[in-house]
Model the fold of this input.
Amino acid sequence: MDNAIYVGLSKQIVLQRALDIAANNLANTDTAGFKFEDLLTNPDPAPPAMTAGIPTPVTFVADGGVARDFSQGPLSQTGGAFDVAIDGKGFFQVSTAAGPRYTRDGRFKLDPTGKLVTQEGDPVQGDGGDIVIDPALGPISIAANGVVSQAGQRIGKLALVTFDNLSALSKEGNNLYSNPSNLPAQPSTTATLKQGMLEGANVQPIVQVTRLIQISRAYETITNLVNTANDLSKAAVQRLGAAS
Done:
């Protein structure tokens, strides 16, 4: 009887995690470059229990990690001179206090020194380091291959990289990814950049709302099962007590 309760509780823990992920997906529907996530689950076999001397395996539900969908999000026109969308596989590389990070969020701006930075102020990296722009020289032009020009002169090229195994990237705050496995970053040769555009999140809001409803109903069902198992356990104890 206790096994049923423990299995139900293990499922509820996983459902709570799945609910958090679905809610986060929904909350980031309008976040540029955000990538949809889903929870992976796998059975977690417990040591065999003994029933009348016979091993009885008990299988709990375990969190198997988070899967991330890096498929292309929709592109939208913004007209912003420093808005850049990636069309294809690749990431912008930015420099942070914690080291190099990677993002699909192309909402860039200039800091007081003229550096091209992210919304959080992290310098966007080019093939030669930071990209510095002089506003006095007029508007900039960003070509499809990432070359940044101003007043007809090349001032840098946006570094666009990719990885053989995207699942090795670790998500951090501010729409950034780290590379804890130190996989070699390779230049992206297939992606193109589009100035004045942004890539939207690849989240489907209706699907996520439906997912939230499904998780809530599943949680309620498990709660009812746990309560029923608990009631049966109490009834069994009371009968045993009455018999003695």
Observations:
- The CA atoms of residues 128 and 183 lie 21 Å apart.
- Residues 2-70+203-243 form one domain.
- The chain has two helices and 21 strands.
